[in-house]
Design goal:
Blueprint (H helix, E strand, L loop, with lengths): L1 H15 L7 H7 L3 H10 L4 H32 L1 H19 L13 H19 L12 H19 L5 H8 L2 H7 L2 H6 L1 H32 L1 H33 L8 H43 L1
Helix pairs in contact: 1-2, 1-4, 2-5, 3-4, 3-11, 4-5, 5-12, 5-13, 6-12, 7-8, 7-11, 11-12
């Protein structure tokens, strides 16, 4: 059963990387797979076979999640951005409570003001990024400039994937490459212009590999050397991503309703907001269940460890 859970965790992480404003790293923290993710990416350059043997199920889930997200979730987001955002916002919101334990608040111990400042800065950066996300969409052409751009975007998006709270898709949105990049992951793009699609995807993939290796190594060292401060930054990024996600969802919803009329008498906006609230509650329930089963699994693992020690 564990193999299925690992694949499902990877699937959730992969899907999250496609939703504008949501971070795969955030979902990895929520589903208790973040340290596995960092361990895999930080070891692929030096111990590739060992890393694959240990985490291949998670990786399979991530790859399928990105493909399914690019094909299906992108279409759903295009039809109902605010309700889709509501679901993921609920998932992230409910998980803020158990994640706050990582900040190590202790009775009688003073709160480190530097850690609080770091958290506020990281939160502010994410909200600013969301407010800027109205960039004009770019057009990809087969030339050296765009090959370099795709390589750079691969690095940025990959680092964002392993850093909780930072959304690679939001960065692509700000830079105007969100739709062009997602458009590459389709049969239509391959049939239409195989050479351009292949070269762009290859450049993106090479950049992404470099990005995850560098990003995960840096984060791994930060978690070892200054875990509490890093957790404060991560917590700020996750809160910022929650606010940023909602800002991006509202913007997308307004743009959609300006260009389309699904229902008469302007009731679309009310329906979208009602669906957003309903799916926010559903997402919160899903987040609660994920946290509940994670807690249960940790207790089970602890009992098993104690039992093994006694033997």
């Amino acid at each position: 059963m564990k193999w299925l859970m690992d694949i499902l965790k990877g699937l959730a992480i992969g899907l999250a990387n496609v939703v504008a404003g949501l971070s795969g790293g955030t979902i990895a923290v929520i589903v208790n797979a973040y340290e596995d993710l960092i361990d895999f990416f930080s070891n692929i350059a030096t111990h590739l076979i060992t890393a694959l043997k240990k985490h291949y199920k998670l990786l399979i889930g991530i790859v399928f999640g990105i493909i399914i997200g690019a094909v299906c979730l992108k279409k759903l987001y295009g039809i109902a951005p605010l309700p889709i955002t509501g679901f993921f916002a609920g998932l992230v919101f409910i998980s803020l409570f158990p994640l706050s334990k990582s900040l190590s608040f202790k009775k009688g111990k003073k709160l480190n003001i530097i850690n609080v400042i770091l958290m506020i800065i990281s939160l502010a950066l994410l909200i600013t990024l969301a407010l800027l996300s109205s960039g004009e969409e770019k057009v990809l052409t087969l030339d050296f400039k765009h090959v370099l751009i795709m390589f750079g975007l691969g690095i940025i998006a990959a680092i964002a994937m392993v850093l909780p709270g930072v959304s690679g898709s939001m960065i692509l949105l700000v830079l105007g490459y969100y739709t062009p990049v997602l458009g590459l992951i389709s049969i239509h793009a391959l049939k239409n212009d195989f050479l351009t699609t292949f070269v762009m995807l290859l450049s993106l993939a090479v950049g992404a590999i470099l990005g995850v290796v560098l990003g995960s190594k840096i984060i791994k060292q930060l978690l070892i050397k200054c875990r509490i401060s890093t957790n404060f930054v991560i917590y700020g990024l996750i809160i910022g991503s929650l606010v940023g996600m909602l800002i991006t969802g509202v913007k997308a919803n307004n743009e959609l309703l300006e260009n389309n009329n699904f229902l008469p008498n302007g009731k679309e906006d009310i329906i979208m907001h009602v669906l957003c609230i309903v799916l926010f509650i559903v997402g919160s329930l899903c987040g609660y269940l994920v946290n509940y089963f994670n807690k249960k699994k940790l207790k089970s693992d602890l009992k098993e460890e104690i039992s093994t020690d006694k033997e």
